[in-house]
Specification:
The protein has 209 residues and is an all-alpha fold. The chain has one domain: Tetracycline Repressor, domain 2, CATH 1.10.357.10. Keywords: DNA-binding, Repressor, Transcription, Transcription regulation. It holds the Pfam family TetR_C_6. InterPro entries: BetI_C, Homeodomain-like_sf, HTH_TetR, Tet_transcr_reg_TetR-rel_C_sf.
Length: 209
């Protein structure tokens, strides 16, 4: 249980943080609301006030996970890194083996693994995927602008390829088929195709004291 200073600011966020942990451990089909309320330190009545039914809670926790995706939130923080380095670091962070990141990935993968019958949840997934693609596209454009990325393909198409690759590798990682390092190495194979090759002058300059 997080300390008081570590808890999210609002009780609603505390419920979502607890839901992410419980669903990450047990899955969408097996989670129990009372376990979420106990972990969040709130009453069942308050949980149902914010999330009137199970579908509303699933929608809320999916949006919570999507908003905290490392590759969305880390991509534009390091302004000193090249566009390529920032993009690579942000996408690599999706394979952090910490419980928090694993839980976020598990929620995303569970929601998107099967046809979505809830129209509101389907719309939330569409919006989250669009935002993810948009943020990665901005990262690619940054790399094109500073010369660290080269590609003849449209940046939007490259972003779509990268996010789809991360999603697929995440599924294999969470299934125990590959390790986080394996996932990053596979991702690097594709990323290397858009990285500008350093010239001899660049390499010489980097070796100077």
């Amino acid at each position: 249980m997080p300390t008081e200073t570590q808890k999210p600011a609002s009780k609603r966020d505390r419920i979502l943080a607890a839901a992410a942990q419980v669903i990450g451990e047990r899955g969408l089909d097996a989670f129990v609301v009372k376990d979420i309320t106990a972990l969040a330190g709130v009453t069942p009545q308050l949980t149902y006030y914010h999330f009137p039914n199970r579908q509303a809670l699933v929608r809320g926790v999916f949006q919570y996970a999507a908003e905290r995706a490392p590759s969305v939130n880390l991509l534009h923080l390091d302004r000193e890194a090249s566009g390529y380095e920032a993009l690579r670091g942000a996408l690599h962070a999706e394979f952090d083996d910490s419980p928090e990141v694993r839980d976020l990935n598990l929620i995303w993968n569970e929601v998107t693994a099967l046809p979505i019958e809830d129209p509101e949840l389907a719309e939330a997934v569409r919006r989250a995927t669009e935002r993810w693609n948009e943020q990665v596209t901005i990262g690619i454009l940054r790399g094109l602008a500073d010369g660290s990325i080269v590609t003849a393909a449209a940046p939007q198409a490259v972003a779509e390829l990268l996010t789809a690759l991360v999603e697929g590798l995440s599924q294999r990682w969470l299934a125990g088929l590959i390790s986080p390092d394996d996932a990053r190495r596979t991702l690097d194979v594709v990323l290397s195709t858009i990285r500008r090759a350093r010239s001899g002058r660049d390499q010489a300059a980097q070796s100077l004291p």
